[in-house]
Amino acid sequence: MQHTAIADQIEEDLHEPHSFFTTYIWSQDHKVIAIQYSITAIFVGLVALVLSGLMRLQLGFPDTFDFIDPSAYLQFVTMHGMIMVIYLLTALLLGGFGNYLIPLMIGARDMVFPYLNMLSFWTYLLSVIVLLASFFVPGGPTGAGWTLYPPQAILQGTPGHDWGIILMLASLAIFIVAFTMGGLNYVTTVLQARTHGMTLMRMPLTIWGIFTATVLGLLAFPALLVSAIMMMLDKVIGTSFFMPALVSLGESLDYTGGSPILFQHLFWFFGHPEVYIVALPAFGMVSDVIATHARKNIFGYRMMVWAIVAIGGLSFVVWAHHMYVSGMHPAFGFFFATTTLIIAVPTALKVYNWVLTLWRGNIHLTVPMLFAIGFIFTFTHGGLTGLFLGNVTIDLPLSDTYFVVAHFHMVMGVSPIMVLFAALYHWYPLITGRMLHTGLGKAHFWFTFLGTYAIYLPMHYLGFLGVPRRYFAMGGSDFIPESAQSLNASITFAALIVGLSQLIFIYNLVWSLRRGEPAGHNPWGATSLEWQTPDVPPRHGNWGPELPVVHRWAYDFSVPGAERDFIPQNQPEGKGAEG
Amino acid sequence: MKTAEPVNSDYTQPGVSGMVSDWGADKQAFDVPWGKLMMWIFLLSDTFIFSIFLTGYMNVRLSATEPWPPVSEIFALTVGGVHLPLLLIAIMTFILITSSGTMAMAVNYAYRGDRRRTVILMAITAVLGASFVGLQAFEWSKLIHEGVRPWGNPWGAAQFGSAFFMITGFHGLHVSAGVIYLAIIARKVKRGDYEKKGYAIVEISGLYWHFVDLVWVFIFAFFYLW
Lengths: 579, 226
Fold this sequence. Notes:
The complex is a heterodimer.
Chain A: H1 20-25, H2 30-60, H3 70-106, H4 114-133, H5 164-192, H6 205-236, E1 247-248, E2 251-252, H7 260-293, H8 301-314, H9 330-358, H10 367-390, H11 392-398, H12 402-432, H13 438-465, H14 483-515
Antiparallel strand pairs in A: 1-2
Helix pairs in contact in A: 2-3, 2-4, 2-14, 3-5, 3-6, 3-7, 3-12, 4-5, 5-6, 6-7, 6-8, 7-9, 7-10, 7-12, 8-9, 9-10, 10-12, 10-13, 12-13, 13-14
Chain B: H1 15-23, H2 34-63, H3 71-74, E1 77-79, E2 82-84, H4 87-112, H5 115-145, H6 159-191, H7 200-225
Antiparallel strand pairs in B: 1-2
Helix pairs in contact in B: 2-6, 2-7, 4-5, 4-7, 5-6, 6-7
């Protein structure tokens, strides 16, 4: 049966925008939607950053700040976690970079369904507004922790148990709708709208990472949606899906016979793939940044692709390692510990390949490269502590301590953020046509990278001491030495400095928009298609009258005998040299 | 690999590597319209939603502290003095499966270019879907009349009502959305909007409709027959 591929058609079918509104606000252009996504995500991310600063103030200097009471502290923890994981990282990596890079890197004119793509952003914006609205309702946002475990999440005694939790669940449901609309687009675009010559095994690893992460999202977010619906019913109309019979504040409640553990299973069936929804795009982008700035082909491209796919598949069978402390049959613990440790194999393979790509490369210590190398450090570090926590017997004593906080911040907080910075410095010239300021960028890198270690390295020691996480204050705990408090104070200092140093970055983003050095075409000498557009920044439709034709993979760097030290993917053979 | 000419998939390779190169072929992985692939992926995602609903239901059913109500008795009707278990559900299931048949015929006529028959069959499908939702509303009101609530019922575990209203409600929303979807597509078919683009859209809406029917079969098996 014949069908027309819109990617092959020229301008008339592309809804060329004419007014300011259709160009910048109700835009169906993937690049504008990507920028809208990114700005929104960075904005909520800054809110979450401020919240983490407030948490650190309380932990470093207890009894100093009157406006942080225990309820407020729990609310800060909850909102910080949820915003960072979902509304910043997921939205920026997939909604932002996914939207911008997929059509450009595979040689398409736009996403396959631009209108749906636009709806995706506006729905996401609605979810953010609903989420932020919870700061202004009576009782404030929910303080149930980002995992929202019932029964406490919806009961008296938890801050925000009236309105905060309802808005949180509604916002999550809206976010999932938005993600689904975007995600269907990303997957279909990668599968069906590649340009001539762009086979799957010639795609840059960035696209592989984003693609696999989107598939994970489409299969994992349903679990969160269902658990949000069930908890909403428990809260609003009094069903007992997750609520056992219980006595609260001396009063026996109407709930009966529900299963709180069911929620934990559903939540982590979403929650663990979510780790890789955040990590896989980061893996992909960092691979491309490293190869480009080391002027060397990525080591083991095929293995890198299979590792991404294998990690994606395995991520669905490890979820209960987040629940060892919930009391689990030893056989299940054994199973989940085994699958968890198996994930370390493809992950370690990727780390080796990044390092081997650097080996004997022509390393340019540009700002993106610094962040990429920083990522290898933080990710290895966080991954190694993951091996501790994947084992049931080691996890049990460490699970409720700062060791876990340090682990997951290193592995899925700081590491993807490092890659996001690398990616922003790397692709900013393409998006705006101007370079970010290098000096400011390097200052930003060193503050962020060293600050990260100043914050999270001591937290491992706090964890070994047994300092519990989530607590508002330690009180008179005999087993915690006095010195833990000074360590906490120093962590707070470091956290505030890192937080403030992000202003350098924001300033750089804004300043460079007008004053930055003009980037010209392909300032990094990259091979992938997004740098080969006729205009920089690319115009609507991306490619001018004709789509590019791809002749080679995305990693022809430093090919012996070639004119330049890179050969773009769309350069035919015979011109330049053979790779 | 890296310097080869633009390649289409190499169908000659055997085994796994042949499959990989088929999938990784030039330009597109599947020889189907974009909308159809997107619908398949959406349905895969939706399958996870319903599977998790049903898994959650089974879990609460097993962990409920009170006995589960006698399902086939609750859904029985007495017609002309005869007591028939699951009669209403059987009728609803029959209607929905019939509608899948009319939908499949609509797809057939659409590809043959017979717009009139396509529209009629899609309209019949939508009407059957609407009557399914109507019967479901009747069933809900009957149960509510007998005292079933999401938070409790006269016969046993409260989770019976919770799961019943949640799962059939979520499925009913899917059917209602499908009825509206089919009506919109049928109207556009009637106007001749797809003369140039082709009638894949009828098949795509059909995919959604068959999916909703298939889900009902699982709900029927796990909720009413268990």
